[in-house]
Protein 1
Amino acid sequence: MENRTVYFDNNATTPLHPGVKEALIEGLEIFGNPSSMHAFGREARERIEDAREKVASFIGADADEILFVGSGSEANNTVLSLLHCDSTRCSCALSGRSGLVTTVIEHPCVLNTARDLGRKSHEVTYLSVDKHGRIDLEELRRAVTDKVGMVSIMMANNEIGTIQDIKAAARIAHEGGALFHTDAVQSVGKIPVDVRDLDVDFLTISAHKLYGPKGIGALYVKKGAPYCPLILGGHQEGGRRAGTENSLGIIGMGKAMELRAIEMEEEEKRLLELKNILKAGIAEAIPDALFMGHPEHCLPGTLSVSFAGAEGEAILLYLDLVGIAVSTGSACASGSLDPSHVIMATGVPVENAHGSVRISLGRENTLEDVHYMLHHLPIIIDRIRTMSTAYRRK
Amino acid sequence: MAKWTYSDKVKDHFMNPRNILREDNEADFHGIGQTGNIKCGDEMIVYIKVDPADLTITECKWRTYGCASAIASTSILSEMVIGMTLDQAYAITAKDILKELGGLPDNKVHCSVLGDKALRAAIDDYYGKNGMEDRIKTQSAKIVCECMQVTDEDIEHAVLEGVRSFSELQDMTKIGAGCGECHENAQAVMSGYIQKHFGL
């Protein structure tokens, strides 16, 4: 089979959409400080507000509910930090409620912030997940006591692709008197997201996960929701996030959202089809493959799988040698001693967790890419199993 | 394409691993040693054939469950030991393997520490099977971490290398990375050696 380069790591980051690239090149000319009153500044301001409209309309929000931030991590940190805000400049006191409810499978930017809150004597509850990575809504209901100020639950998991019932979770949080935040970094641009329908108070988006540039994200803050800036300084973003706006990044993000609005629906179907072909092909060609994540409530392009007796980093690197990029939850790839906390939380045996591989498809992937993968993966798994202490052919 | 994190030698041994035991003919080998535990992420088995006349290793095969570093380090070890006497082979350390590989990234060093242990276990197995129990050295060392086969001697060695905290010890030896039950005992053993050697 002819060699190709196949990028199957779209959950890590996506290639720039050619339309975004064009917008960025054109945007390079716009250098004015958006806070300046002269023509140069006004032009930059206009472009930023145009992008804000696009981001807002894509998720069903009003423009003034969107603020641009440096990353999804920054957005998540900002929201969780509301719980220990002691500023006199804002009105974000959460009615004396300082507790946080989150899940064991969140992104490290939420988990590490939650851990810090725990050290600052905030009560933090971590919801467990079932074998498909879904939380138990009843467990959530019990966790939302009158001490809880915020519930933060990711919409779709970056590793296994499992999608939570955010609408139901937000309702439970609100019934218990808590605010609701969702990290939707992996969801916005892949599946329909409407903030009014979901009735969330805060929602996090990152541009580079939807074919936009890196270093730019957005936070949706529902009108009237308590808020306090994490980064203090000037009056940018309506005083909600100081620092001169990343106008080029914002222009790119706006364009990426505009293009998502046109392309997402079709692509969702196409990626799901490709994933199903890939999944069936793997199941047929490779014995003892274990698929993870929810069989239905899962991102269309995310396939998480592990192979008994084959370690993840070895799989990743052998695939790299034939031009295929994937990612792994293997401890050996991360340099830590434990495999992925997400995979472990779903109760997958640790032997499997070390061998987990995440294949995440995106708009540039084709059926030929899937066939290329299906040609090489069985050979590679067989090769690793041949030298494995842990696998014997049956 | 950008360069690999690994050296060309590591890459070569990863792409073309030498001396894998492909068939189930373990019985042909004179000594077999196993270290690690798949639950902890790495497991290695080393098989050796020995010329009884001069106690040199004539063949060395292996199997491993592990990452690229683990595969490459076991592969290169299997080449290094052929022709060595059992005494010479016994003296090989993880550092020697690392040197031969042209180094590994810091966070990967722990992946190479099992090969030499598996080899020593294979040599001891040979001694045991051939009435040379007096030459077995690992018997004197006490295993502290069952999952990763870390002994008190390994901990002493680590302390002498400058390790002072449990996390440093874990970085170096992977101790406690499996079930974690050894944590308290390992801490006590480490403190004992720090006290013994440095009076701290």
Note: DSSP finds 14 helices and 13 strands in chain A.
Protein 2
Amino acid sequence: MTIYLIAFYAYPLYRNVELSLREYTVRSFVQGGAPFAGLDNYRTVLSDPAFGPTLAHTLIFTGASLAFQFSIGMALALFFHQHFPLSRTLRALILVPWLLPLIVSASTWSWLLNSDSGLVNAALGVVGIDPVNWLTSPGWSLTSVIIANIWIGIPFNLVVLYSGLQGIPVEMYEASALDGASSWQRFWRITFPLLRPVSTITLLLGLIYTLKVFDIVWIMTRGGPTGSSATLATWSYRLGFGNMLPEFGPGAAIGNLLIVMALIAGLVYIRIERRQHLR
Amino acid sequence: MTTSTPRSWWKTGIGLVLTGLMLFPVYWMINVSFTRDQDMRASPPHLFPTNGTLDGYRAVLDQQLPYLGTSFLVGLGTVVLTVALAAPAGYALAKLRPPGGPALSFVLLIAQMIPGIIMAMGFYAIYLNLGVLNTLPGLILADTTLAVPFGVLIFTAFMSGIPDELIQAAVVDGAGRLRTFWSVVLPVSRNSIVTVSLFAFLWSWSDFIFASTLAGGGDHQPITLGIYHYIGNNNQQWNAIMATAVVASIPAAVLLILAQRYVSMGVTAGAVKD
């Protein structure tokens, strides 16, 4: 197992760090012998005018996705936690968006948001709103990929929060009902606090996954137009594989910045997990 | 508690509406896959495929079968390799308690957090030198990295629950370590094998980033690339694109129906680990 880990995680990671520290061209990539460049690639990336906006997009993308995925997922979890016929079946069906291949969801959303014949613009037209160039205008492209990403993330939040809800003893609610608490009070005083450990972990895992999101953005907008929906992940891919002349060095450097962000979130996750276990 | 009062049927109604809203894009994908080219730009769009056509599906059968075949092979290969690697590892972590076990579990957790693009670049560099770029085994190996850490953690969690007496009984009967694993531990772990296989298959089936970086120039390309090229090359024939998308979603749908409880088990176990 250790060997597998070294061969399939550590070695690619090592190569990636190495890539980021050398000046690679297509030729030196195949033949070896790329000159050592130190932190030049990092300097290139950080001083690139695209760096600031791309970092901002990554943060907006992650923040907005998390906020909506979590709140909608929570609302659905609370709703489906009630007993009613078909509750189980419907809950299972809601998992579908999460299980679909991302390329499928991304292309479906591309078509829904299509400027000329997409359903979303047609629906907006019915209520008298002018069509929006969702994917092709710099002002809307980021919003579009966020909408699609929220849709994909809701089921995950629903399932995890739902399993958290099941851990709350029914007696708590019965007692509070006797005390005459309203359902709103019950949510804020009982459900929300007791669900906090599960919520924290859901959000942190969501954060780690969302930082990694690549497929959706790349397939829907390729980070464009003019970089208006580029995130660190798509930028890194564009540099490495998106052009005729690959720039592996800077691409790998961005990737490593991304992994640092994910690792920080990961360490926080593990700390919180540990603390909960000790309790 | 679960008696169907009129009130709870009312809730079912709301539940249906909510589920319908969530699944509407999926419905729309299916609807568009049956829509004729000339109706595609109708305004307002037709909500039902009134003049349905199977052109899209004909195009899938004509052009996408090789991609689907590749995806199946890669998916099966990934499942086999993932279980073969993760089950013994999970057993070792759960029962044999090797030195450094906790540290290894920790590393596995971290491994799941590495962004795909980083692994893709690293693999690309290695594969280029080894000459396994654009080969099926190369893609299968890369795809296992998606599911192996998850698999080990699931197996560890599950196998820790197997009573020690069961294993000791096998040892008393004279079974070696391997035989105990093969004929005692594996059969009782069937549920976790199903869960891990399910996710390994789904993840490798939907993988796009490894496919496009490690198999994008080869003869054997999976269905995710099939759809991707389709969008790139003809962004007019949306019924064919959506038909391909529908076909590519079938494994997810089938697995969801067949293995409902394993799916939610996997999601929660993957998120809240022991």
Note: The mean pLDDT of chain A is 79.
